[in-house]
Design a protein that fits this description.
Layout lengths: L1 E10 L2 E11 L4 E6 L5 H8 L7 E6 L2 E2 L2 H4 L2 E4 L11 H11 L4 H14 L15 H13 L5 E5 L7 H16 L3 E5 L3 H7 L2 E6 L2 E7 H7 L3 E8 L2 H5 L4 E7 L2 E6 L5 H9 L2 E10 L2 H14 L1
Parallel strand pairs: 3-8, 3-9, 6-7, 7-8
Antiparallel strand pairs: 1-2, 1-4, 4-5, 9-10, 11-13, 11-14, 12-13
Helix pairs in contact: 3-4
This protein binds adenosine-5'-triphosphate (ATP).
Length: 299
C-alpha cells in the first residue's frame, strides 16, 4: 500500500503541494486529478523518489521510498521519455537493466507485452520509426516491464485510437487484478470514472475534493434528469431548483439542485407527449470537477 502522509513541497516560495494525504491500497486504482499546474507531476516525482519533499512522509508497504523500492515502481510520464534512436528491444534492455532485470527476463517479458499490445513486428524497429500511438504503447511497456507493485499512469491514453485504448484498458485492469496499486491521472473524466475507486482533486496544490468516487457522486446534491420526447422546455426551465436544460440530438438533460426537484419536473414532463425516456442520474465526474475547481478559484 502507498501512503502519502501530510506532504508539502515548496519550490522556493511557491507552495506546489500543500499538506497532501492519501492512500492507495493493493489492487486499487486511485485518481490524482487537477488542472494544469495543480501539483500532480510534483507529487509523482516525490513518490518515485526523483524529488525531495519539504515536509511529510511517503511510504510504500511501510518502507520509505528508496532504491530498494523504486525497482518496484513503474512510471508512465506524460512526456515521451524514450531514446528514439534505439530499437524497442534495446530500449527495453536498457530500461529493464536499470530495474535489475537480466536480458533474458527482459526479452521474455517484452515478447509477451508486445504480443498483448499487438506490435510484435516492432521489436527490432527503431523507436523513431514508430507512429505516435505505437510509441505510446512502447512507453507503457517500459513502465511495466519490471512488473511494478506501484504504477503511475499520467495521461496513458494520449495519442491512442479507440481500439488501442481498449487494449490499454485490458492491460491496466489485468495489473489491477494482480494487486498492483495504480495512480491514474487524466483530464479525461470519463476514463477516470471508468478506472478509479477513489480520487483526489488538487487546485494549486491544495486538496479540494477527496474520497471514494461512488460516495462523492452520492453526496453531490445536484442531479441530472435525462428525457427524450416532446416537452415544454420553457416551463421546465422556470421550475424552482432547475439550473439548466440542455438539448443534444433530441435528448434533454435537465440539471436540478437536488432530488426534491425531481417530482416537480416529472409532473411537467408527464404533460408532454411521445416520452420515450425519463432517467434520474448522478452528476458526471466532469460536472463535479468543473464545479469544485471553479469554486476554489473563487475563494
Ligand atoms: P500539468 O497538468 O500542467 O502537468 P501539474 O499538475 O503536473 O501540471 P506541476 O508540474 O506539479 O503541476 O506544477 C505545480 C506548480 O509548481 C506549478 O505552479 C509549476 O509552475 C511549479 N513548478 C513545477 N516544477 C517546478 C520547478 N522545477 N521549479 C519551480 N517551480 C516548479
Amino acid at each position: 500500500m502507498l501512503k502519502v502522509d501530510h506532504v508539502t513541497k515548496y519550490y522556493d516560495k511557491l507552495k506546489a503541494v500543500d499538506d497532501l494525504s492519501f492512500e492507495v491500497k493493493d489492487g486499487e486504482i486511485f485518481g490524482l486529478l487537477g488542472v494544469n499546474g495543480a501539483g500532480k507531476t510534483t507529487t509523482f516525482r516525490m513518490i518515485t523518489g526523483l524529488l525531495d519533499m519539504t515536509k511529510g512522509n511517503i511510504t510504500f508497504n511501510d518502507k520509505k521510498i528508496d532504491y530498494s523500492v523504486t525497482d518496484k515502481i513503474g512510471f508512465l510520464t506524460e512526456e515521451r521519455s524514450l531514446l528514439t534512436k534505439l530499437t524497442v528491444l534495446e530500449q527495453a534492455k536498457l530500461y529493464g537493466g536499470l530495474k535489475g532485470l537480466t536480458n533474458e527476463e527482459i526479452e521474455k517479458r517484452l515478447d509477451k507485452l508486445l504480443k498483448k499490445l499487438e506490435i510484435e513486428d516492432y521489436k527490432n524497429k527503431k523507436i523513431k520509426e514508430l507512429s505516435k500511438g505505437n510509441q505510446q504503447k512502447v512507453q507503457l511497456i517500459m513502465s511495466i516491464i519490471n512488473e511494478p507493485k506501484l504504477l503511475i499512469l499520467d495521461e496513458p491514453f494520449s495519442g491512442l485510437d479507440p481500439i488501442n485504448i481498449e487494449l490499454f484498458k485490458e492491460l491496466i485492469m489485468d495489473l489491477k487484478n494482480k494487486g498492483t496499486s495504480i495512480i491514474f491521472s487524466s483530464h479525461r473524466m470519463d476514463h477516470v470514472e471508468y478506472f478509479c475507486d477513489s480520487l483526489v482533486i488538487l487546485v494549486k496544490g491544495k486538496t479540494v475534493l477527496k474520497g471514494n468516487l461512488k460516495q462523492i457522486k452520492e453526496d453531490y446534491r445536484k442531479k441530472n434528469i435525462v428525457v427524450e420526447g416532446n416537452i415544454d422546455i420553457d416551463k421546465i426551465s422556470k421550475i424552482k431548483g432547475v439550473n439548466k436544460v440542455e438539448e443534444n440530438k433530441g435528448t434533454y438533460t435537465i440539471n436540478i439542485d437536488d432530488i426534491s426537484v425531481n417530482e416537480k419536473v416529472f409532473k411537467e414532463v408527464a404533460k408532454g407527449n411521445n416520452i420515450t425516456k425519463y432517467e434520474l442520474e448522478d452528476a458526471s465526474l466532469n460536472e463535479i470537477f468543473i464545479e469544485k475547481v471553479g469554486e476554489s478559484y473563487e475563494k
